[in-house]
Design goal:
This protein has 563 residues and is α/β, with parallel strands linked by helices. Among the domains are: 8-84, Urease, subunit C, domain 1 (Roll); 101-229, Diaminopimelate Epimerase, Chain A, domain 1. Helix content is 30%, strand content 20%. The N and C termini lie close together (10 Å).
C-alpha cells in the first residue's frame, strides 16, 4: 500500500489533537485507515465532494478535507495518499446472478449462438466426447431464433438425440429463458406429448402437435434444469467454487453490494451461501432473493421462506426480498404485452404469458409481507409491467410499505410511467450491452413492430418522472462492469440519464435505497460502512472506463490491482 509521507512529528501532533473534525463523528476514535488527497464523489447530497476519508472498525468516521479529518489520524493510522485518484462509494449491483455466472456447475458444453441445430453438430460431438455415460450434460449457448429455424429438415430433438442417445442433455440459452433437451432428459422429467404446459412455461411441439421439439420455454426449462443441477456429481463443491469465482469478479469490478438475481433454493444454493459466510469468504454484501416457484403451491414455499428470513442489515447475507417473475422475454414471445405480438412461436398465446398470474401476484405480495418480505419483480413486457404495478398498488392500498422494485422494464406503457414514483417502486434497468448504446432495436421489429421497438427501455423517460432509478448488470446475461453501464446510460442522452453523477447514483445510493440498505451503505458519509472503490482516473465530468484499481468492503481490501 502506498503510504503518505507524514513526518513523525506531524503524526504525533495529529494523534494528540483534541479538537475533532467538523465532519467527523462527535466521539470518533482514531482512524485505523485514512485515504487522503482523493477526488471523492460521496453520493451524499449534503456533502457531495471531499478529498479525505477516515475509517475505523469498518465504518466511515470522518469525511471532508484533510484539515477536517486530521484530528482522527494517529500514529498507527494506515494512511494512503491517493494522489488525486477518483473515489466513489462501492458499486451496488441491484440485479446480478453472481451464483451462476462463474460456476462450472452450469456445465462445460458450449455451443455457438449463431448456429442452426445441424450446424451445432460439431459442438455437440465435442460435448459428447467430454461427457460421461449416465451423467447429465449441462451447457449453454444456443439461441431460440437459430435453433427454431425453418431451414432444418430434422427437428432440434432429432438432432440432439442423434448425438446423445444414452445420456440426458440440457443446454441453456444465454438468457436462461429456453432450454434445448434430448429425449432422455424429457423422460427423466416425465414430459410427454400429452404433458400440459406448466405455469409460466411452454413445452414446444411441431406445428401439427404430433411430436416434441426438444425446446422448453421459460419455467418448463427451469423445472428440467433443476433436475439436472440436483443430479450433478460434487454439486456442493462445484457450486461453492463457482460462488467464490463470482465474488472475485464482483470485487474486481468495484462492486461491494449485490442484489441477488435469483436464489434457486431447491437446488441447495442457500446452503452454499451460508457456508461461504461461515468460512469468512464473502467479499461483498449480498441481499439474497429466494425464487418464488410458479408451479409449486404457496403453502409448500412459505415455511422455507420464513426459516431463512434475515432483515439484519449489519450482516453480509440479508434475506428480506424475494424474486418473482411476472412474465418471460420478448425474443421468445413470452414477455406479456398489452397488444399482440406481430410474430410469435405461440399463436395461441399472442400476448405472451405470466409466470405468476395477476391475482396470485397480489396474494403473494400480501402473504410475503406478513413474513417481512418485499419483492424484486422481473417484468419485461408492458403487460407484465402493468400486472406488477397493479399488484404493488394493491399492496400499497393495504398499507404495505415494503421495498418493491421492478427489473428489466424493456417495455412500459406511457400510462404507467408515473406510477413508479407514485407507488414508490424502484425502476431497475440494464444498459451495459453495446447494442443498447447503439440504440438499435431492429431485432424486435419483426416481433413487436418498429413503433413499439423504438420505445424500448424507457430509462430517461422514467427518470424524468422522479422515480428512484437503479442500474444493474444482470450478469452474466450482460457484461458485469458498472462503469460500462454508467457510460452507456449517459451516452443514450435524452433516452438515458443526464449526467455521469446521476448514473453513479443509480449504481450506488439509489440501489441502496431499493435494497433497504440506505442507512448502511450507498454513500460515503459518517456512520456508514466503508464500502469504497478507487479508480485510476476521474469519471465525474469525464468518460467512465473499466479502471477499478482498489475495492474496499467495510474498510478492508477485497480487490487491489497487482496484488
Amino acid at each position: 500500500m502506498i503510504k503518505s509521507l507524514i513526518t513523525l512529528g506531524l503524526t504525533a501532533l495529529l494523534a494528540h489533537n483534541s479538537s475533532f473534525a467538523e465532519n467527523a463523528a462527535p466521539t470518533a476514535p482514531l482512524a485505523s485507515r485514512a485515504l487522503i488527497n482523493g477526488n471523492i464523489y460521496t453520493a451524499n447530497d449534503a456533502q457531495p465532494y471531499a478529498e479525505a476519508i477516515a475509517i475505523h472498525n469498518g465504518k466511515v468516521i470522518a469525511v471532508g478535507s484533510f484539515d477536517e479529518i486530521k484530528s482522527v489520524i494517529g500514529i498507527k493510522t494506515n494512511v494512503t495518499d491517493l494522489k488525486g485518484k477518483q473515489v466513489l462509494p462501492g458499486f451496488i449491483d441491484n440485479h446480478n446472478h453472481i451464483f451462476e455466472a462463474a460456476s462450472e456447475a452450469g456445465g462445460n458444453c458450449e455451443l455457438s449462438q449463431e448456429a442452426t441445430p445441424s450446424e451445432q453438430i460439431p459442438y455437440l460431438q465435442t460435448c459428447f466426447e467430454n461427457s460421461k455415460p449416465g451423467q447429465w450434460v449441462v451447457g449453454w449457448g444456443h439461441t431460440i431464433q437459430a435453433t427454431l429455424t425453418l431451414e432444418e429438415e430434422d427437428t432440434p430433438l432429432e438432432i440432439i438425440d442423434s448425438i446423445f442417445p444414452d445420456r440426458p442433455v440440457i443446454i441453456m440459452e444465454q438468457t436462461s429463458h429456453s432450454m434445448w433437451v434430448n429425449s432422455i432428459a424429457l423422460a427423466l422429467a416425465g414430459i410427454t406429448l400429452s404433458t400440459p404446459d406448466p405455469q409460466g412455461g411452454k413445452i414446444m411441439k411441431t406445428e401439427d402437435a404430433d411430436a416434441l421439439l426438444g425446446i422448453l420455454i421459460d419455467n418448463a426449462g427451469d423445472i428440467v434444469m433443476e433436475l439436472a443441477w440436483n443430479s450433478l456429481k460434487n454439486k456442493f463443491t462445484k457450486s461453492y467454487d463457482g460462488l467464490l469465482n463470482g465474488l472475485h469478479e464482483v470485487a474486481k469490478n468495484g462492486i461491494t453490494t449485490v442484489g441477488d438475481g435469483r436464489l434457486y433454493w431447491k437446488r441447495g444454493w442457500y446452503d452454499v451461501w451460508k457456508a461461504a459466510e461461515a468460512d469468512g469468504q464473502l467479499t461483498a454484501r449480498v441481499s439474497l432473493r429466494p425464487w418464488i416457484y410458479p408451479h409449486i403451491p404457496q403453502k409448500e414455499q412459505l415455511s422455507f421462506l420464513e426459516s431463512i428470513y434475515n432483515p439484519n442489515k449489519n450482516t453480509l447475507l440479508i434475506v428480506d426480498q424475494v424474486k418473482i417473475y411476472s412474465d418471460g422475454i420478448i425474443v421468445n414471445g413470452t414477455a406479456k404485452t398489452l397488444a399482440p405480438y406481430q410474430f410469435t412461436y405461440f399463436p395461441k398465446s399472442p400476448y405472451g404469458l405470466n409466470y405468476i398470474q395477476p391475482k396470485a401476484m397480489k396474494n403473494w405480495l400480501t402473504t410475503l409481507a406478513t413474513l417481512g418480505y418485499g419483492a424484486h419483480i422481473h417484468a419485461i413486457g408492458d403487460g407484465g409491467v402493468r400486472d406488477a404495478l397493479d399488484a404493488i398498488e394493491s399492496a400499497r392500498r393495504s398499507g404495505l410499505t415494503h421495498h418493491y422494485n421492478i427489473t428489466h422494464l424493456e417495455m412500459v406503457n406511457s400510462a404507467d410511467y408515473s406510477r413508479f414514483k407514485s407507488l414508490s417502486v424502484d425502476a431497475d434497468f440494464q444498459v451495459g450491452s453495446d447494442y443498447i448504446v447503439q440504440n438499435d432495436h431492429s431485432w424486435a421489429h419483426e416481433l413487436i413492430g418498429e413503433k413499439r421497438s423504438h420505445k424500448l427501455i424507457p430509462l430517461g423517460t422514467i427518470y424524468k418522472t422522479g422515480a428512484n432509478i437503479t442500474l444493474s448488470s444482470d450478469w452474466n446475461v450482460n457484461p458485469l462492469s458498472p462503469l460500462s453501464a454508467i457510460a452507456n446510460a449517459v451516452e443514450l442522452k435524452d433516452k438515458g440519464l443526464p449526467t455521469v453523477q446521476a448514473a453513479i447514483d443509480a449504481y450506488t445510493i439509489n440501489a441502496a435505497h431499493a435494497l433497504g440498505l440506505e442507512p448502511v451503505t450507498g454513500s460515503i458519509e459518517v456512520g456508514k460502512s466503508a464500502d469504497i472503490v478507487v479508480l485510476d482516473r476521474a469519471i465525474v465530468g469525464g468518460t467512465p472506463q473499466n479502471i477499478v484499481i482498489w475495492t474496499l468492503l467495510r474498510g478492508k481490501t477485497v480487490f487491489k490491482e497487482g496484488s
